[in-house]
Design goal:
By secondary structure, the chain is an alpha+beta fold. The protein has three helices and two strands. A two-stranded antiparallel sheet has the order 1-2. Helix 1 runs antiparallel to helix 2 and helix 1 packs parallel to helix 3.
Amino acid sequence: MDYIDIKSGNEWPSCALSNFASHSFQFRGLDVSSMEGFLQGLRFKDPDIQLHIFGLVGSVAKAAGKKREWRMTQTFMVPRKRNSKTF
């Protein structure tokens, strides 16, 4: 059986499927540069910090989120634009 080992350091196409890969998207109108940046940004409540981390890619994004422990509460912060009435 063939399989793809998805890792950022592997050859294409597996590296392109990694959460470390630079793939921009929008979530609730906010610009995100990578899935890793998005996941790490969810650890922070402050929207300015979230936006900053959403713009990071790869190991830089991972390192930024490492400073925030979320496992005790198992809580992620849902991002929203300032003054937004939607959640």
